[in-house]
Amino acid sequence: xxxxxxxxxxxxxxxxxxxxxxxxxxxxxxxxxxxxxxxxxxxxxxxxxxxxxxxxxxxxxxxxxxxxxxxxxxxxxxxxxxxxxxxxxxxxxxxxxxxxxxxxxxxxxxxxxxxxxxxxxxxxxxxxxxxxxxxxxxxxx
Length: 141
Description:
Mean pLDDT: 91
Number of strands: 8
Largest sheet: 2 strands, antiparallel
Distance between the termini: 36 Å
Shape: elongated
Structural class: alpha+beta
Radius of gyration: 23 Å
Order of helices and strands: EEEEEEEEHH
Number of domains: 2
Low-confidence stretches: none
C-alpha cells in the first residue's frame, strides 16, 4: 500500500475467495514418493498465515484510474467556492506498466528483507551457509 495509486492488494485468488465455498478456496495437500508433499492448486497465492508456504507468490494489485481525464469532472474553485470543471492536462496514459515494475521492485525488497532477517550474517557467504543449513534441516521432515 506504500505505492502511490494502488488501492487494493490481494494474494492468490484474493477477493474472489469471498464468492466461493471453502472447498473451492483451500489448497488440498497431496503426497507422492517422487514429489513429496504438494498441492495441485495455489489459491492462497503462496502465502498462508502471513508467511510463504513454498509455492509461487502470486500478488495482484489494483490501481486507481488516472485523475486527469480528457472529459473533466466537476470540481470547486477554492477561492470563489463556485463550481468549475477540472483542468485538462496531459497525463501519463501508460502508468499501469510502470506501476507493475514498481510493484515487483517493492515485493523484491520486502522478500530480500525477510531473507536477511531469517538467514542474515556479515557476508553473502555466511547468509548462503545459513540458508543451506536451514534447507538441510527442513528436508529431514
